[in-house]
Amino acid sequence: MGLRDDLERYREVGEQRRQDLAEFIQYGDLGRSEEIHIPIKIVSLPEFAYDRLDRGGVGQGQGGTPEPGDPVGKPQPQPGDGDEGEAGEEGGEHEYYEMDPEEFAQELDEKLGLDLKPKGKRVETEEEGELTDRTRTGPDSTLDVERLFKQGLKRKLSMEFDEEYVRELLRVEGISPEEAFSYARESNVPVSKAWIDDAFAAIPDDERGRWASIEAMEENVDREPLTQRIRREGIGHIPFRKEDERYRYPEVVTKPQHNVVVVNIRDVSGSMREDKRELVERTFTPLDWYLTGKYDTAEFVYIAHDATAWEVEREEFFGIRSGGGTKISSAYELAAEILEERYPWREWNRYVFAAGDSENSSNDTEERVLPLIEGIDANLHAYVETQPSGSAINATHAEEVERRLGDRENVAVAYVSGPDDVTRAIYEILSTEDDS
Fold it and tell me: Rounded distance, CA 334 to CA 344, Å?
């Protein structure tokens, strides 16, 4: 095995040592992009190492040999030694394993013991396919020249006949043009009556009666095969006709596909401290990646709310600061409006994911949120409570949702008090969708 093979082997080992998926979801830097970069636990590749100090040989010093009794000085610090000195300016090397959402979804299925298939509605979409269909009209650029040529050639070959053979027929004793035409038709010779009339009139009188009968003519004159005549004379011209023209146009291909829209709702009220916000993002990001990998077409809506709700872009959603009071119903009202206008239930699979610390204004959950959840058609409604302390006196929203709607097949409630709970919460949400 050569050095190149060793290098390839070490690289394979490095990829195998990438961070465990569950560990990455719980503790890794998920970032705020739509790309999935999982750190690899680096395995150093073999290389030749050279001494940084050029001493010139074994036993050689820098300024001569010291005399007995001379004090030995302290070794001079070298770059990179010890804790003192200026910070370096060059960054270190970091390796990542790039994973697309489909691969991420497949591996998460395996990790969590799931095998979810895209569910719900399959939308029929029409797309233009190959130029395989034909029509009688169209732009000149789409004219099917090959078909036009073939049709003309077929007509040319169907009209061809051995003209000399027919002229010899007209030299039979006492034959009339009508009799010659009738005989030609019976013999499958594609000659017209007008052509026979003209040819009969052109035969000199001294050549008429050359053959005593048609039988005598047949015994002495052979019909030349069409292929032989074409080899000798060529095709000549090909007759094209308007009715032979066909124009190509795209075939309309109907493809079924699964479409999904995911509405992500997060609480950004004043009670959502940094540790709570971090748990929201750590839960939502893998769910986004997962559904992107599962569905043919995935779109995302991001809604932030305190006492009021507003739609935001993804970048703002995963980084928004906290402040203000709390009214969770405002987010569901906006979600219902957006879904109705842009993503009708008959065409879209719909997921509504909400997260926060379960603290809500008085009676808002009972009077507004629960009826809104019941009124929004969706494959799955999920609420994730993020309480690092594990509980709070006024954090009752998740419990109320679970008590009132927890027995529904499309409602899931999960509790996250730390990074260790994230994968379990994702499993609870996705397994609920699997049961449905």
Answer: 15
Angstrom distance (rounded) from CA 386 to CA 391: 9
pLDDT at 119 over 80: no
User: In CATH, what number does 255-435 get?
Assistant: 3.40.50.410
What confidence category does residue 221 fall into, taking pLDDT thresholds of 50, 70 and 90? Answer: confident
Alpha carbons 357 and 283: distance in angstroms, whole number: 13
CA neighbor of 306 nearest in space, from 274, 360, 332, 268: 268
Distance CA 322, CA 391 (A): 20
Model-level pTM? 0.57
Angle between helices 177-186 and 193-202 (to 10 degrees): 130
**How far apart, in whole angstroms, are the C-alpha atoms of residue 246 and residue 134?**
6
- Beta partners for residue 200, in sequence order: none
- All structural domains of the chain with their residue ranges: 1-46+92-99, 141-248, 255-435
Provide CB contacts within 8 A for 186, sequence distance 6+: none
